[in-house]
């Protein structure tokens, strides 16, 4: 074994063991399951082989296609981009010396974390209540200030439903992005900004040439992780709209759940899961390759 | 150092995780139920009373909510799980096999004839669970808001009455899988001579024509266009949603429907401003559904005899003195002293029929419910015409029945 | 303090956003305090504050073992967080500093675990745990949580460690530090904001986890907060005051915890900058 390998091995192995033990066997089992016929009420030993039938059933389901499109554009791309933009803005604000001087920093940073501590089930319940077409606070407010003539059922009409779901997801998941970026901002040495200021760089220039490059590794991780977690997320859509109105907000994760636990076909669920895993694996590989190249060049 | 601290922690934790079986003490039984904590105060009292008078059979009441029958199957299949498990009527079919449950015929004997919904717990000539509580959806209304109108006795009457009042009929109309519009839709269809699927001599087929489904879709969509129901209910999934419960309490809604347990919570809040009546056509046999919970014995239970003793106690009138549910026993039901406001439920229950008519095909009831809710919601939100949605329901059902 | 009008450019937008962020939670707390009869929202604003009280909290603590659930959650989340941070620090340091041949595959394996849909993992894990007696055990849940949170922790720490110049490691080595010494004395202190981030994410991820907790911990005494909380959302449930009270109670310990950590973090940073 090479020298760096010998040095890294004792550091990396314990973590790998824990991860491997827990995920390796179930991960392989998921692949096997995709080729089996099994309900959630049978013991795994009772499964029968189904060949490619599960994949065939899933791929010929027209709902799966539109769910895939929704998953990629609405659920994942839109929420991740909005989270990054607002998250970066908020992290910069929270990093500002002004808040520090006014002794508001600690308070503001704790307040930002608040949505994260609300369990998703409760978060969705609260927002559904706020969005309610008759009695929701948001509608009452919008009607009172004259923006709307009467209340709107945000989660039941096709023109607003995705934006409402996005609002819930961004609200609940924004703290993670903010705190990770904020920690990144804090480890950028002050001297770099001072030197740039001496060279006459403006705020925008120092953000572009110092802040962004320093945050690059952290942003890489944030994008990768939020993309994967959101792509696989089931809770928000299921609890807020259940895929409705009609099938307008169906996503792959809700399809997986429906096949596995509503129609009781674990195999079809696993087949969707396998397809989702493959898509994300391709994304992650491509993304890491691009970002690693960026890192070498930087 | 970190490693030794880790080991110490693990040992410390291992000591906490106990397995307290064994020994000659009293028989300990675990009884698991899934209704929310706020609904089971009376059940806890009943279990405590049992434990007080039976030192040799101690019951631990375990709540695992919301309902997760798959968790129970997972546990039973791997040799563990609670001794007694509460199972929703609709779920018994999934766990009715000897790898999961203990057949109860030997214990039940002739007592079975007294029970409601036995068709939901009997499979391959064996009884897999004892029907315990019974419920159905009754019409619930705010007396003041309904005014001089009589509670409607047909669906057509309901539409007319509701349209004459603002928010005359509030109901959960979301398109999600669990959305409770499913019950109203079925009640409507059943009272108009249809059903989603039907079993004729063992062969399953769709049970309604395209015209019947189209008119059902038009009827419910019409509630929104006539103003009987506000569009905001298209985002509501449950009858227990605040917009319905609070709406009935304050008089923002005139009518809705809900099971008795939700009605009980509503009356705590609204007092005698609300009352119940049978659903439209609710006094016609088979135009409403009979739901409820059953009690089953895990095949892994080491003490099935004692478990059945506990079940006998739980299904007795004794338990229902404190547990505010309707018993799924004809005899106990008649012994029950029901407040005036709940008369709608009690009058309707004898005419309700279980969902057994949908059980046994290759389609799960849950997937029919999902398909139907989706298609109705697609019409409300303008994504489909009622004719297209009716066709989509028929196609979906036919495809599912083929397996 | 000197007042500068320009400060408003920071303070106003910050608090505007914070208001939107905090409002739903304030609304939740407010709801939990209102009497059941007032929960219908169409009251005029003037009557909103009539009859506020802690009735719902009384119902909550009388009807369930919520205090016990919070203790369970605190224990499991705290222990998981300690293990995750220690294991992830070692792994991330190894991956950040040594370009060994298997580095790429290791990173991929770690990442791949994040791709698996959890719903499919549950049955095999349940079976395995039932074989080795890890059901209804704190240890079992901690093992799952450590494995679950390690990948993100490793990736996050890797991102932070990569920004720390290697010159510092080498200086420490020349001073005679071992690898562990370099990690604990040099890298971790500099990456403190990153460590606090990882502690926060790990703790919250485990605190809010519902799925594994509900499947692996069914004993009444072993339930976690989320499992307890979910038992207020049932088919029949419409006691929204109590649900919101439970949610508030489930949120308070973490808010307290992180407001404390937050202060220490700010203090630690200013101390660090003085030294520089």
TrEMBL record, chain A:
Its main location: membrane. Keywords: Cell membrane, Membrane, Transmembrane, Transmembrane helix, Transport. PROSITE patterns: ABC_TM1. InterPro entries: MetI-like, MetI-like_sf. Gene3D superfamilies: MetI-like (1.10.3720.10). The chain crosses the membrane at residues 12-35, 72-94, 106-130, 161-185, 218-239, 269-288. It comes from the Bacteria. Residues 69-289 form the ABC transmembrane type-1 domain. It is a multi-pass membrane protein. The keyword Membrane applies. This is Sugar ABC transporter permease. It comes from Paractinoplanes lichenicola.
Automatic annotation (TrEMBL), chain C:
Its main location: membrane. The chain crosses the membrane at residues 7-30, 69-94, 106-129, 135-161, 182-207, 240-261. The keyword Cell membrane applies. InterPro entries: BP-dep_ABC_trans_perm (IPR050901), MetI-like (IPR000515), MetI-like_sf (IPR035906). It is a multi-pass membrane protein. Belongs to the binding-protein-dependent transport system permease family. This is Carbohydrate ABC transporter permease. It comes from Paractinoplanes lichenicola.
């Amino acid at each position: 074994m090479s020298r760096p390998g010998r040095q890294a091995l004792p550091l990396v192995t314990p973590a790998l063991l824990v991860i491997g033990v827990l995920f390796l066997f179930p991960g392989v089992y998921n692949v096997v399951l995709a080729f089996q016929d099994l309900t959630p009420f049978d013991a795994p030993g009772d499964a029968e082989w189904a060949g490619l039938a599960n994949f065939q059933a899933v791929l010929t389901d027209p709902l799966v296609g539109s769910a895939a499109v929704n998953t990629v554009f609405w659920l994942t791309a839109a929420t991740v981009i909005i989270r990054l933009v607002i998250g970066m803005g908020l992290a910069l604000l929270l990093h500002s010396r002004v808040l520090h001087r006014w002794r508001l920093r600690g308070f503001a940073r704790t307040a930002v974390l608040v949505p994260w501590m609300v369990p998703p089930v409760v978060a969705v319940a609260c927002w559904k209540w706020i969005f309610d077409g008759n009695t929701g606070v948001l509608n009452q407010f919008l009607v009172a200030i004259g923006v709307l003539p009467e209340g709107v059922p945000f989660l039941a009409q096709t023109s607003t439903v995705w934006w409402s779901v996005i609002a819930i997801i961004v609200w609940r998941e924004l703290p993670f992005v903010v705190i990770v970026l904020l920690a990144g901002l804090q480890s950028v040495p002050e001297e770099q900004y001072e030197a740039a200021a001496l060279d006459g760089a403006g705020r925008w220039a120092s953000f572009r040439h110092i802040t962004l490059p320093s945050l690059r590794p952290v942003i890489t991780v944030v994008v990768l992780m939020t993309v994967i977690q959101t792509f696989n997320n089931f809770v928000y859509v299921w609890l807020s709209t259940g895929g409705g109105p009609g099938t307008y907000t169906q996503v792959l994760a809700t399809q997986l759940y429906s096949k596995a636990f509503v129609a009781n076909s674990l195999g079809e669920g696993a087949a969707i899961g396998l397809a989702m895993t493959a898509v994300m694996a391709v994304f992650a590989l491509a993304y890491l390759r691009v970002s690693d190249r960026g890192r070498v060049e930087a | 150092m970190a490693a030794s601290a880790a080991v110490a922690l693990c040992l410390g934790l291992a000591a906490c995780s106990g397995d307290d079986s064994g020994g000659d003490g009293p028989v300990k039984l675990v009884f698991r139920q899934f209704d929310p904590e706020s609904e089971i105060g009376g059940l806890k009292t009943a279990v405590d009373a049992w434990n007080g008078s039976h030192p040799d059979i101690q019951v631990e009441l375990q709540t695992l909510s919301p309902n997760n029958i798959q968790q129970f199957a997972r546990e039973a299949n791997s040799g563990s799980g609670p001794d007694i498990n509460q199972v929703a009527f609709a779920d018994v079919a999934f766990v009715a096999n000897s790898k999961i449950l203990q057949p109860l015929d030997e214990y039940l004997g002739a007592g079975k004839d007294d029970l409601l919904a036995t068709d939901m717990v009997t499979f391959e000539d064996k009884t897999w669970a004892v029907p315990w509580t019974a419920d159905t959806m009754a019409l619930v209304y705010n007396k003041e808001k309904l005014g001089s109108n009589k509670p409607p006795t047909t669906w057509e009457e309901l539409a007319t009455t509701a349209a004459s009042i603002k928010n005359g009929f509030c109901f959960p109309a979301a398109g999600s899988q669990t959305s409770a519009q499913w019950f109203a839709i079925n009640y409507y269809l059943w009272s108009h001579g249809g059903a989603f699927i039907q079993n004729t001599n063992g062969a399953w087929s769709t049970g309604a024509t395209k015209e019947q489904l189209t008119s059902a879709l038009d009827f419910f969509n019409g509630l929104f266009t006539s103003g009987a129901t506000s569009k905001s209910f298209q985002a509501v999934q449950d009858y227990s949603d605040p917009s319905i419960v609070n709406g009935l309490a304050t008089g923002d809604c005139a009518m809705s429907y809900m099971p008795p347990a939700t009605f009980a919570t509503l009356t705590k809040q609204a007092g005698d401003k609300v009352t119940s009546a049978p659903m439209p056509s609710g006094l016609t046999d088979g135009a409403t559904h009979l739901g409820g919970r059953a009690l089953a014995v895990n095949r892994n239970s080491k003490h099935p005899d004692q478990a059945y003793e506990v079940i006998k106690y739980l299904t007795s009138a004794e338990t229902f003195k404190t547990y505010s549910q309707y018993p799924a026993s004809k005899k106990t039901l008649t012994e029950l002293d029901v407040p005036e406001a709940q008369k709608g439920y009690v009058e309707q229950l004898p005419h309700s029929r279980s969902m057994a008519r949908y059980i046994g095909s290759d389609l799960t009831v849950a997937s029919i419910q999902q398909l139907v809710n989706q298609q109705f919601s697609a019409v409300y939100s303008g994504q489909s015409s009622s004719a297209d949605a009716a066709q989509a329901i028929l196609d979906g059902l036919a495809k599912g029945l083929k397996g | 303090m000197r007042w500068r009008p320009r400060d408003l450019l920071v303070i106003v937008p910050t608090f505007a956003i914070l208001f939107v962020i905090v409002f739903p939670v304030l609304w939740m707390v407010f709801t939990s305090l209102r009497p059941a009869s007032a929960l219908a929202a169409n009251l005029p604003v003037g009557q909103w504050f009539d009859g506020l009280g802690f009735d719902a909290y009384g119902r909550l603590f009388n009807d369930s073992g919520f205090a016990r659930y919070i203790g369970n959650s605190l224990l499991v989340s705290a222990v998981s967080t300690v293990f995750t941070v220690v294991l992830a620090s070692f792994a991330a340091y190894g991956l950040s500093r040594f370009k060994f041949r298997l580095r790429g595959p290791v990173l991929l394996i770690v990442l791949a675990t994040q791709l698996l849909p959890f719903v499919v993992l549950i049955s095999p894990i349940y079976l395995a745990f039932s074989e080795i007696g890890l059901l209804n055990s704190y240890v079992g849940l901690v093992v799952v949580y450590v494995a679950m949170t390690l990948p993100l922790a490793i990736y996050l720490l890797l991102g932070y460690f990569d920004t720390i110049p290697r010159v510092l490691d080498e200086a420490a080595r020349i001073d005679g530090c071992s690898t562990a010494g370099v990690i604990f004395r040099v890298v971790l202190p500099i990456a403190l904001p990153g460590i606090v981030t990882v502690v926060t994410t790990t703790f919250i991820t485990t605190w809010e986890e519902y799925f594994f907790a509900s499947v692996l911990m069914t004993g009444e005494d072993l339930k976690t907060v989320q499992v307890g909380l979910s038992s207020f959302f049932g088919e029949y449930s419409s006691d929204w005051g109590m649900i919101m009270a439970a949610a508030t109670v489930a949120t308070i310990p973490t808010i307290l915890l992180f407001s404390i950590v937050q202060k220490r973090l700010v203090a630690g940073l200013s101390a660090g900058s003085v030294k520089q």
